[in-house]
User: Which sequence fits this backbone?
């Protein structure tokens, strides 16, 4: 279970103050809000890529507020797929789990037979599916998704929303999605939180 | 090792290896000549050795820059806007002169204008023109490297839009309103670099314009008698005056270039080269002579290494022989063999690589790390790492030599790796300049993504960062080797009192023997050919790893 207590962060302006959240096992939450309201910063703080001004984050009742990102066990899918260009699809997936079952992972995201493909040959949707497969191979305790559907066209986005939701539910992986699109938030998550300016 | 510790070591190493020798040299010269900058500069005008040097240095650098742009811009345009068969091979040939050791270029041009070539060297009036042409040969690669990436990837929509606007209906209109403003920062940056390299030209001036001197060659020639208390004080003043002028001019040029580089980085809409480029047969009228120009001094060097002159009562004849090569590699009482020179050169280059590559890399990483928190400090470090650029190779050589005198002359003159100090000083700034944009180009998201996958620091370094930087590391490494192998100015100053002859020094020594044997000129060309072939091999190897849109200077 992920608990965020009284999280606060400001850069040049106050981004969020006293933010609280409780994410139960297998639950999917969406956080919506306009651009610049601090959604992405919140996700980056939860996974340890940003430091907080105040507040604590507990994961399975352990305080991880000052634990480095690589030791938290929290996965993040970026807005645009971050795939390492010097590695093939398979090489990228092996970064998630050296001994992982690559073909099953690819099958789950609908990309069977993509093992040897070069990452620059993938479309935006395929890239995001590979990112998802890699993140799931790392067996995260929580998966964070930073607007991963925003750069895709509407049809593809709708399909991927459903696919990713069912994969997460199947693997019982709790997740937080941030998006400015309320429809996607509603379709994807069990509950929606609104973050305002 | 954490980057902070590595950064401290790198900064300490840089200060010790690069800043300290320059400081010690300056301190020694001021100790002998006294602190009077006015007298230093005045001595350049008053001393018979240096009269007219300032004017000559500026004039040849300005004309060389102008001529380089005249031949470089049309070539860059053709390469950037049109398709060519074997595109990357053609580009490699046209840009290769820049990495060629200057002494090899000097040998090539000497042969072209010499008695076995065009035979115009007897007329002194051709020397200056030859020097300008040789500088243009050397530096046209800079114009191509700076301008071609802008031309080859600029979104054609921009030009198409301009054609539809009243201001861009004519070719001149498009030139004035589109191409000139877009290309100007790149052209000006190339001009600055060309000016710097021509201003500090040594080997070409020394060999092509006999008797004429630049500030650089003057410093080299009077340097051996500098730094000795109460001895030839005016020579110390000459070096200090020349250094002061040269340092000021080079620093100003570097500052302008750094400013222009920042302007170049403004984001231009880019498109694939396949969309931008079109076929243009007429362009061969520019590319063809360009290729011939780029290759002719190199072909001349190889050719001349097999041409041996025989003079008897019936006149002078040239025969095809390998005796020049045999002479070069046999060694004489006064000269070491080519094998010794090759071993020294490779040894120095290897040692330079081992030290300069990690040093430059960590310095570049330090600048990048500091940049995020303290941009002013980063700028200062950036300028500090460019210091040797503004000091020229002869100044660096003098720095090492006078630094050695100051610390322990006897030890350093008998210490085989001594020239490596100069080579490290010269090559480290190049490594920084290659690694810094490469490090900047790696999106921080890669590291962040790897961290969220639970990958620990050392694995992120070896499996993510290192492979992403591999191409740039190889280019920096190969460039360091090539620069060290071909280094002439500093080595000439540092090693002339020792036995550690390198390939470029051996070429100079062979050519300096006044035709007492018929083999010295072909032998010099034979050694030049060895150096040329090694450099060519390294250059073509490095080109394989160059990123497609690389617009960097090297």
Assistant:
């Amino acid at each position: 279970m992920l608990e965020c207590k009284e999280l606060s962060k400001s850069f040049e302006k106050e981004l969020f103050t006293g933010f609280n959240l409780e994410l139960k096992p297998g639950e999917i939450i969406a956080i919506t809000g306009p651009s610049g309201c601090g959604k992405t910063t919140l996700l980056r703080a939860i996974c340890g890529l940003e430091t907080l001004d105040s507040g604590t984050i507990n994961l399975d009742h352990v305080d991880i507020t000052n634990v480095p990102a690589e030791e938290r066990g929290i996965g993040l899918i970026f807005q645009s797929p971050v795939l390492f260009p010097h590695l093939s699809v398979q090489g990228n997936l092996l970064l998630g789990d050296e001994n992982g079952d690559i073909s099953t992972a690819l099958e789950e995201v609908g990309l069977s037979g993509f093992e040897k493909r070069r990452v620059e040959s993938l479309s935006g949707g395929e890239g995001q599916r590979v990112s998802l497969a890699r993140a799931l191979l790392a067996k995260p305790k929580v998966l964070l998704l930073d607007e991963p559907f925003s750069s895709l066209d509407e049809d593809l986005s709708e399909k991927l929303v459903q696919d990713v939701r069912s994969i997460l539910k199947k693997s019982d992986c709790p997740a937080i999605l941030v998006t400015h699109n309320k429809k996607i938030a509603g379709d994807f998550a069990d509950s929606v939180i609104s973050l305002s300016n | 090792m954490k980057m902070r510790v590595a950064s401290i070591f790198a900064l300490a190493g840089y200060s010790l290896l690069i800043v300290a020798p320059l400081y010690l040299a300056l301190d020694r010269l001021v100790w002998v000549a006294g602190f009077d900058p006015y007298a230093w500069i005045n001595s350049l005008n008053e001393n018979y050795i240096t009269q007219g040097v300032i004017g000559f240095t500026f004039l040849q650098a300005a004309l060389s820059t102008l001529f380089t742009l005249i031949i470089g811009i049309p070539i860059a345009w053709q390469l950037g806007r049109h398709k060519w068969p074997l595109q990357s091979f053609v580009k490699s040939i046209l840009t290769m002169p820049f990495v060629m050791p200057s002494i090899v270029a000097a040998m090539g041009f000497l042969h072209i204008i010499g008695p076995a070539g065009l035979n115009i060297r007897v007329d002194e009036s051709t020397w200056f023109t030859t020097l300008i042409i040789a500088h243009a040969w050397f530096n046209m690669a800079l114009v191509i490297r700076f301008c071609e990436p802008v031309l080859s990837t600029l979104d054609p929509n921009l030009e198409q839009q301009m054609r539809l606007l009243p201001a861009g209906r004519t070719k001149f209109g498009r030139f004035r309103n589109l191409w000139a403003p877009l290309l100007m920062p790149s052209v000006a940056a190339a001009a600055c670099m060309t000016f710097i390299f021509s201003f500090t030209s040594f080997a070409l001036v020394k060999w092509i314009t006999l008797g004429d001197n630049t500030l650089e060659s003057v410093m080299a020639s009077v340097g051996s008698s500098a730094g000795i208390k109460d001895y030839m004080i005016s020579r110390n003043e000459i070096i200090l005056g020349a250094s002061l002028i040269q340092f000021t001019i080079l620093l100003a040029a570097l500052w302008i270039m750094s400013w222009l580089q920042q302007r170049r980085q403004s984001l231009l809409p880019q498109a694939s080269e396949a969309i931008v480029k079109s076929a243009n047969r007429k362009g061969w009228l520019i590319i063809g002579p360009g290729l011939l120009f780029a290759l002719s001094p190199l072909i001349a060097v190889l050719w001349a290494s097999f041409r041996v002159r025989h003079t008897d009562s019936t006149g002078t004849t040239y025969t095809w022989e390998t005796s020049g090569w045999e002479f070069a590699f046999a060694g004489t009482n006064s000269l070491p063999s080519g094998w010794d020179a090759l071993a020294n050169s490779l040894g120095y280059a290897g040692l330079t690589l081992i030290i300069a590559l990690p040093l430059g890399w960590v310095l570049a990483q330090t600048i990048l790390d500091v940049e995020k928190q303290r941009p002013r400090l980063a700028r200062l470090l950036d300028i500090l790492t460019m210091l040797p650029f503004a000091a020229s190779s002869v100044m660096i050589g003098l720095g090492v030599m006078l630094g050695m005198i100051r610390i322990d002359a006897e030890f350093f003159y008998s210490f085989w790796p001594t020239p490596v100090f100069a080579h490290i000083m010269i090559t480290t700034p190049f490594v920084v300049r290659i690694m810094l944009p490469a490090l900047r180009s790696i999106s921080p998201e890669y590291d962040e993504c790897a961290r969220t996958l639970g990958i620990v620091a050392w694995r992120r370094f070896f499996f993510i960062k290192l492979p992403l930087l591999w191409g740039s590391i190889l280019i920096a490494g190969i460039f360091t080797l090539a620069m060290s192998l071909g280094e002439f100015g500093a080595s000439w100053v540092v090693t002339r009192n020792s036995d550690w002859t390198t390939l470029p020094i051996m070429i100079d020594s062979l050519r300096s023997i006044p035709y007492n044997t018929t083999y010295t000129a072909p032998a010099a060309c034979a050694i030049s050919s060895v150096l040329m072939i090694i450099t060519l091999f390294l250059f073509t190897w490095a080109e394989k790893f160059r990123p497609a849109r690389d617009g960097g200077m090297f």
In short: The interface with chain A takes residues 443, 445-446, 448-457, 460, 463-464, 467-468, 470 of chain B (CB under 8 Å).
